[in-house]
Prior knowledge:
By secondary structure, the protein is an alpha/beta fold. It contains 13 helices and 13 strands. It has helices at about 5-10, 65-70, 70-85, 110-125, 150-155, 170-180, 205-215, 260-270, 290-310, 315-335, 335-350, 355-365, 370-380, and strands at about 25-30, 35-40, 50-55, 90-95, 100-105, 140, 145, 195-200, 235-240, 245-255, 275, 280-290, 380-390. The strands form 2 sheets. Strands 1-2-8-3-5-4-6 form a 7-stranded mixed β-sheet, sandwiched between helices. It has a 6-stranded mixed β-sheet with strand order 7-11-12-10-13-9, with helices on both faces. Helix 8 (about 260-270) packs across helix 13 (about 370-380). The longest helix has 20 residues, at about 290-310. The termini are far apart.
Amino acid sequence: MIPAAALLALLGSLPEAAPGPAPLLPVTRGTTKSGVAVVVVAAPDSPWAVAQLHLRLDASEITPKTRSATSAWAAQLAEVGRASIGPNGTIEQRLTPESLVLSFGVEAAHVVDAIAAIDSVLRARSNRPGSPPPRPPAPLSVVDDVVDAATARALFPGEALALSTEGGVLDATTARSLGDVLNTKSDDTGTLPRLAIVVVGPGSGEALLAQVNHFLTAPIRPTLVTAQPTRRKASVTISEQEGPSSSSSLTLLIPPRHDAAELLVLAALLGGHLVRSSGAVGIVVDVTAADRRALVEAENDAVDQVRRVAAAPPPPEVVDAAREQVLAARLSSLNDPARVAHALGQAVLDGRPTRVEDEIASLQALTPTKVSLAAAALAAAAVIIVRTPGPEPTSSASP
């Protein structure tokens, strides 16, 4: 078992836990005056603070033209926020098929500047595009990955999530359309947040929440849009890129359970990693082989490994070793405010705001039987295989 003090140490600067039960993270949850979900994490001794804006991008009313301008729109919004945090602040961004995250980092004493950056972004959401930003934001490092673009195209053909977010021109019309998506609090069903704001910084959780409500006043209209896309349920979907395939990525997805602790350990046993999708969670296993025939055999072997774990629980010592490995990696990956904020914000968008704390706690109570049951569910799940060609053969120069 991991002691509470060690769990709290994942932020690197938090005070020692008081005697008795302690929360896994010093989290306070609330909403803005207009009803947007807010999560704050108190890190009173941290030299750095972060404020992040999380936005779902799976609205079915987004056209291909609008969707393709998302990257340019995100870069413009990041540049708007730059004016609030000044030259010493940092901006990071993560754009996936399902969400956009803008992360503003500042010295802890200037946490209100990071909050003000989000307020300015919300106010500028539909602005007419200006000059291209001088430099794009740095990529945001995260704890858990999501389905990549190639897998999304295979999993959700014809849906908004399958459309590219790159290469489009950001004109006044597309900026206004994307701003309208950001202007809604809820997703297409009205049950999941469209937006979430996460702040990690100094002071108590209550004080941070008060600062968010004081400095973030941009109005968000609580309107809803059309029905959420139906998820593809095909048992096996194969997508092949041009050229002789020598590697593939197998994604096995199941509906989200109470937590993904079992899948985290199962992924470690299989040599894969956890991946999340809207309404699903699963494992990605990367496979390489010398030729197509060997590649198909390797893909089948990977699926067979899942079936073997489903048929017989692994030995307790194997599960214990994998669990300790996963716990150590998970706590290490949450050692900076930006990663903590990203994990908490994505949990809010998925409708399970306490997911981060729940999964760490569940890892400590994991049994081989639970891992086997998760493997059984995964063995019957949808499998998405994306095959990619290997590198071009190089020719040796003649002497």
